[in-house]
User: What shape does this take?
Amino acid sequence: MQNILLSFLAVGICSTVSYGQSIAPPKPGAPPLNDQLSSYIHRSLATHPDLMSMRAMVTAESSRALMARSWMNPDLNLGLMDVPDNLKFNQDPATAFEIGVMQRVPFPGKLKSAGAAADARIAAASLDLETARQQMAAMVAMNYYDLAALLQLDSLLNGGLALTDEMARAAEAMVASGMGAQSDVHRARLESENWRLKIIASRAEIARAKAALAYAVGIGIEDADLFQIHLPADLPPLPVFDSLPVPEILDRSPSVRLAASRLQVAESDLARAHREWYPDADLMLKYGLKPDLKVAGGTDPMTGSPLPPGSVNQNNMISLGVTFPVPLFSRGNQKAQIAERQSMRSAAAADLANARLVKIKELQEIRASLKEQNGRCAFINGSLIGRTEALFNSALTDYQAGKTPFMELAQARMSLVMVKMELTMSRAEAWSLNARWRAALGQLVPTNEDDINE
Assistant: This one.
């Protein structure tokens, strides 16, 4: 019967230990993304609705910049002046057909300041898009690694369940031979049911992870089963942080660059508010067409000379004018507008300083977490797995010799599986942190739009 037990447990040990693959040490430099993950990020950046909406906003800001630099359209006026109520246009010398045009001329520098503010908004919208692209790529990568870890955990759980079932059958064989206790069979079967519950929960987590990855990629949940997932066997490199100058680190960050561009927007709006005090001028040109005046004879009212019956040709008239508002009563409004813009600029400057502090804090936290996960993986793979495997083999030998109860053997086997599950989770977390680090510095995806719109 001991040979039967050995045959059952040997298969279980192999099925469980096979998941404890060795982990390569971190390699220097930024690791390349695997082909599957790169394709998912490429698709997300090209077609995700959130990013498409933000691209449309950049286009809208570009259109607003064209409008900000344009003069207002001229006004065309058509009219009749001093027409008698009998609608006879050749009886009153004041009657005229009038054609006029008016053009508003902005004060020098106004259009330039408006254009500068519009350009700053285009830059801010573009950096907002770039920040969103990096965050979207990081979300795809993090969900990808989460799903990869869950799939490996599911395999480990299935391996643990198979081993538990095999141990239950071995316990039944020991009872049948008179060498075992029935309580060991019940404990093994109860443990098998607990493993089945873990697998049910694991499948639910996998379904949720697939839905999250499908959203990040921008595809329907019906296509989630087509994902090809692979968790790298090695570890990502630990980023070099302390040796880099802080300004160089911040200059790489899309979120800090976005805050700087919003400060530029606030400064441009303040400059524009100062320009708004100066009035625009309206230039007017009018041309009056006068019809021939019909006379019945008599004396010319203008010259006193005699007029024969007939018609008199009248000269057409040209009018020129310029008008501009005098800001006598709007000074208070102008001061309030400038004060508002100054406050907005101060707020934007404070936001930029805060963004720098937040980014440094975020990078330090990510690096510390990544260092922790790399250390955990190295320790588990280098020492802990070997010890738990030795513990399991020792417990198996003692159980066969009747020195160890069944539950101690089951606990040793549980420890081995749980250590390998923890190793998988730590490895996936390390790669997720690596994606967050690269996204925080704007290095996860290309910054050139052509790279994602091939």
Notes: The two ends are 66 Å apart (CA to CA). The chain has two domains: 2-71+115-274+338-451, 72-105+281-323.
